[in-house]
Each structure stands twice: as C-alpha cells, then as structure tokens.
Write a structure and sequence with these properties.
This protein is mainly alpha-helical. It is 84% helix and 0% strand.
C-alpha cells in the first residue's frame, strides 16, 4: 500500500520531472539520462527502506508518538512562515 501510494504521488514526479527537464538537455547521451534516473530510483528506494526499517522498531515508534505533536507544530509553523513570506511584498 505504501509503495503504491508513493509511486502514484504526483509531487515527486513533478519535482524530478522539472529537475530532469532543466538539467538533462537533449545533447546529453542517453546513458547519462538513464544513469541519472537510476541513481534517483536507487536513492529513493534506499531512503524508504531505511525509514521502514527504522520505524518498525518499537523504540522509534514510541519516541515518535511522544514528540509527534511538537514535530507537527514546528513543521506547520515553518510552512506558515514560508507562506507568509510568499504573500508579503519583497523589498
């Protein structure tokens, strides 16, 4: 279920699509483009496997449950601050 959710999540596809469109020019050899895509795939897979292994431990789950409220507050406040900066006129 998690793999399917992650594979169909459009944010990652749009992000990497924009990066690849900007950096992987048509002049580059096909092997460079394939290697870049492979590196991203291996990196993302490794990251998600590491997260799954880490959060499958009881200690990590208990710690996260204990600090989850603060993590949510800090993340929400950070995003609100960034949103306000976008709304305010720049100097």
């Amino acid at each position: 279920m998690g793999l399917l959710t992650n594979l169909t999540y459009p944010k990652a596809a749009v992000f990497f699509g924009s990066i690849f469109a900007a950096l992987l020019t048509p002049a580059l050899p096909m092997w460079v483009k394939l290697v870049a895509i492979g590196i991203v795939a291996v990196d993302a897979t490794g990251w998600h496997v590491a997260l799954a292994c880490f959060f499958s431990t009881r200690r990590a789950q208990q710690t996260y449950r204990r600090i989850m409220g603060w993590v949510d507050r800090i993340a929400g406040s950070s995003l609100a601050f960034l949103g306000l900066r976008l709304m305010l006129p720049s100097r």
